[in-house]
């Protein structure tokens, strides 16, 4: 796997807690950043990456939930807005995050959401997604508001992970 030039920020880095600013104009530099983020995501075996995770506090997310390399289906979202489907059930599944290494915990989220965003060419698009992709979209959009999946876990899981998270935050200094 090729090395990525982008360094993934980890738990305790303040950039992960900032509210990211909207992208006003999709420049060639931002298009390249989106491609670099996809590369970094694949290199780290992730299914999603948000710009704050590589230290850029802007509203940009990349996702690819394909399991096989041959089925790759990268999606770039600039300024994504997520609307949960009111009829949708809550689904519970285990999540992890490239910025919170070696931590997995169950998170409840709506199973179906609609997301509106601009694509890599700046064209608006809208998609209604379910299951794994719906979860990834919500997890990544959370990053743009400075929210991490460990904020959404049960108090019991949180208590169990507390010391690990504290150590992680200290370790990056
Ligand atoms: Ni994440």
Which keywords apply here?
binds nickel (II) ion; five-stranded antiparallel beta sheet; Peptide Deformylase; two-stranded antiparallel ribbon; 3 helices; single chain; alpha+beta; 173 residues
CATH structural fold name: Peptide Deformylase
Strand tally: 7
Helix content: 25-40%
Q: Class, according to the CATH hierarchy? A: Alpha Beta
Number of helices: 3
What is the 3D form? globular
Order of helices and strands: HEEEEEEEHH
Major sheet size, sense and barrel closure: 5 strands, antiparallel
Structure commentary:
This protein has 173 residues and is an alpha+beta fold. The chain has one domain (14-172): Peptide deformylase (Peptide Deformylase), CATH 3.90.45.10. The protein contains three helices and seven strands. It has helices spanning 28-43, 131-144, 155-171, and strands at residues 48-50, 60-63, 75-84, 90-97, 100-110, 112-118, 124-130. It has a five-stranded antiparallel beta sheet, sandwiched between helices. A two-stranded antiparallel sheet has the order 4-5. The longest helix is centred in the last third of the chain and has 17 residues, at 155-171. It is globular. The mean pLDDT is 95. The structure holds nickel (II) ion. Nickel (II) ion (NI) binds next to helix 2.
């Amino acid at each position: 796997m090729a090395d990525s030039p982008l360094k993934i920020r980890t738990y305790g880095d303040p950039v992960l807690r900032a509210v990211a600013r909207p992208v006003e104009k999709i420049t060639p530099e931002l298009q390249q950043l989106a491609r670099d983020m996809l590369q970094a995501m694949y290199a780290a075996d992730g299914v999603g990456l948000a710009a704050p995770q590589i230290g850029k506090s802007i509203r940009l997310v990349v996702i690819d939930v394909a399991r096989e390399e041959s089925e790759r289906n990268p999606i770039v979202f600039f300024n994504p807005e997520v609307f949960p489907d009111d009829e949708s059930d809550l689904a519970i599944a285990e999540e992890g995050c490239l910025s919170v290494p070696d931590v997995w915990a169950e998170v409840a989220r709506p199973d179906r959401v609609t997301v509106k965003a601009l694509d890599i060419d700046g064209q608006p698009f809208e998609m209604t997604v379910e299951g794994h992709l719906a979860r990834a979209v919500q997890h990544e959009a959370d990053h743009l508001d400075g929210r991490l999946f460990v904020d959404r876990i049960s108090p019991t899981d949180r208590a169990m992970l507390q010391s690990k998270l504290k150590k992680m935050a200290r370790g990056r200094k």
